[in-house]
Amino acid sequence: MEKHDYYHEHSHSYAIYILVWLALMALTAITVAVAGMDIGRFTVATALIIASFKAYLVLSIFMHLRSETRTFVVFVIVSLLFLGISFVLLFSDYSFH
Amino acid sequence: MSSTEPIAGTHVHRDDVGSRMGMWLFLFTELILFGGMFLLYSVYRFQYADEFHLAAKELNTIMGALNTAVLLTSSMTIALSIVAIQRGQKDLSVILQIITIVLALFFLVNKYFEWTAKFHHGIYPGGEELLAKSSGEILFFGLYYVMTGLHGVHVVIGMFLIAVMTRQTRTGTINKDSYVRLENAGLYWHLVDIIWIFLFPLFYLIT
User: Fold this and answer.
1) How many domains does chain B have?
2) Quick one: closest CA in B to A15, which residue?
3) DSSP line for B55-81
4) Does a structural domain hold residue B7?
5) ipTM field
6) pTM
7) Inter-chain touch B205–A32, beta carbons under 8 Å
8) What sign for the dihedral angle of Cα B181, A64, B193, A21?
9) Can you tell me the distance from the alpha carbon of B65 to that of B200, in angstroms, rounded to the nearest whole number?
10) How far apart are CA B100 and CA B103, in angstroms?
11) Beta bridge partners of B5
């Protein structure tokens, strides 16, 4: 038994990547279609929610976070958290000027 | 861990998990690099909402959407090339990597035409047409050129990185049992893709 194969227990399947690609293309079409509609203040929010979901798909499937150890996931969450803190601090500072 | 496994009388020192973690740590620095620019964008977008909407009308949504599709597809092909090498299908892996490079090139050519079209209309940093516009629109195009430009630089670097991987796959340095370099190049390429996933709606879809 090759011990250094230990981290790839998941099946080496092409199908999942093709499915995710289809989902990403569909989401792109949706975000373009929604941008064409006039939904006022919700335009930005909708675009960002769709983009975040696309990023989630890329991170978890394409970048294999789903099959990595928890440490990787914690690292990513912490780094995103700090980026989030930067945004919150910046806007709380900005809105009191 | 499996890093000191005797194979044919030699000790092979390897830690693929550590290698990938190192790559992820680097990607976090990239997140901060682009994150800073997204911060800047969000404040100016907030401050000059109307000017940003007006300026974004100048961008070609179809070109942007096409480039999004190209980059998403290239992200899939590099992911598939890893599956191929895991299955020992070396030739298929090489072909998928070459397709990725071709798609990256297509993205850049598209970007080139987009930028030159803007330049012809006098919309470039310091251009007369641009300076005649309102300050919010000037900021929009400043951010547009800096952010898509830096992203473009990442696409170029990614292309060269994948080209090196293609060569190493052909020579057998990257093979069925050792392909962490290809995985790391893939991680970099997916990050480039994620950044574009956010750049596209923020610049092209706010009209």
Assistant:
1) 1
2) B80
3) HHTTS-HHHHHHHHHHHHHHHHHHHHH
4) no
5) 0.90
6) 0.91
7) yes
8) positive
9) 8
10) 5
11) B12
Q: Does residue B150 belong to any structural domain of this protein?
A: yes
Q: Decide if B28 and A69 are in contact by the 8 Å CB cutoff.
A: no
Residues 6+ away with beta carbon under 8 Å from B21: A71, A72, A75
Here the CATH number for the domain that contains residue B153 is 1.20.120.80
pLDDT tens digit at each of 97 positions of chain A:
344 444 454 557 899 999 999 999 999 999 999 887 877 778 888 999 999 999 999 999 999 999 999 999 999 999 999 999 999 999 998 888 7
Provide the token pair at B58. Answer: 């100048």
**What token pair was written down for B116?**
């030159």
Q: How far apart are CA B98 and CA B2, in angstroms?
A: 32
Please check whether residue B17 lies inside any domain of the structure: no
Identify the domain containing residue B114 by its residue range: 37-204
C-alpha B105/C-alpha B25 separation (Å) is 27
- Residues recorded for chain A: 97
Contact of A63 with chain B, judged by CB distance below 8 Å, is answered with yes
User: How many angstroms separate the CA atoms of A67 and B158, rounded?
Assistant: 24
Of A12, A24, A48, the CB nearest to B87: A12
Could you list the beta-strand ranges (E) of chain B.
4-7, 10-13
Are B158 and B192 in contact, with CB atoms under 8 Å apart?
A: yes
Which amino acid is located at A33 in the chain? A
Question: Is residue B66 a contact partner of residue B110, using CB atoms and an 8 Å limit?
Answer: yes
Tokens of B126: 């310091």
CA pair distance B68, B199, nearest whole angstrom: 10
Domain range annotation of chain A:
1-63, 69-97
- Tokens 């300050």 map to which residue? B135
**CA-CA distance, A68 to A64, in Å (whole number)?**
6
